[in-house]
Amino acid sequence: MYNFAADTFDTADIPGGSVYYTELTDSRLTNNSSALMHQRPVVVKPLSSTQFRGIVKQAYDYSCGSAALTTLLNGYMAQTKNEREVMDGLLKYGEYDRIIQRRSFSLLDMKRYVNAIGFNSNGFRGTFQDLVSLDKPAIVPIAYAGFKHFVVYKAFKDGHVFVADPALGNISFTAAHFQEVWDNSIMFIITPDVGQPTNNLLALQDGDMRVIDDALINQFALVDVKYPELGREQQRDAAATMQRVIDSDPNSPTYNKAINTSLRLYYSGR
Length: 270
Known about the structure:
This is Peptidase. The chain is 32% helix and 22% strand. The chain is an alpha+beta fold. It has a domain of 176 residues: Cysteine proteinases (Cathepsin B, Chain A, Alpha-Beta Complex), CATH 3.90.70. It has a 4-stranded antiparallel sheet with strand order 4-5-6-7. A two-stranded antiparallel ribbon has the order 1-2. A hairpin with a 2-residue loop joins strand 4 and strand 5.
């Protein structure tokens, strides 16, 4: 039967990621119910394709600077560079000895490289209002979960700052949280010349607006309904994004007391 069908009918290749519905014919209908009720296949994409849309993912633990700069050059300045090429440029035009010593790139290294390849760039220190008033993306340093990190600022909307993170993908912070982690209120901007082509790969899209809070993740992440209550509690603890620490800020009303600290944000792929 298989050979008969395969040799008799032309079959088309099924696109990768296609999902087909189960369809039934209904003899009670006078017309061909299969044709009437037929639903076209739905093509689905993995969450990672949206999570890192327009972002060059950093290849190394220490390469967030080169990945963020590559993301900005490709996503805004219409370049087609890879992280290795940008990393080599930063080593060539930046402070080589200091880069090797600290195993990371600085905004000064970025400025020297960007200017060397013919673009205008500068680092600025400004207010939060200065940042959200920008009409272009910018690289901003953040101090988050005990680490120094570079991300690309994309936009501010509905009380959230949306960034392209070379490690985590397209994520967002509340305005208040971002101002807490924004390191020294610094922004690095590349300014195109008049008439110079630019891209909008870093423009905000509907998929970037899917934000869920830590409490929801703590309650439901990695929970399987077949587990007993103790198992669910253990899973929630393993998935927790909160850490219990002693408040060491002498200006805080909870100084020397135990508090919950958020380690990172989670974002919905639905």
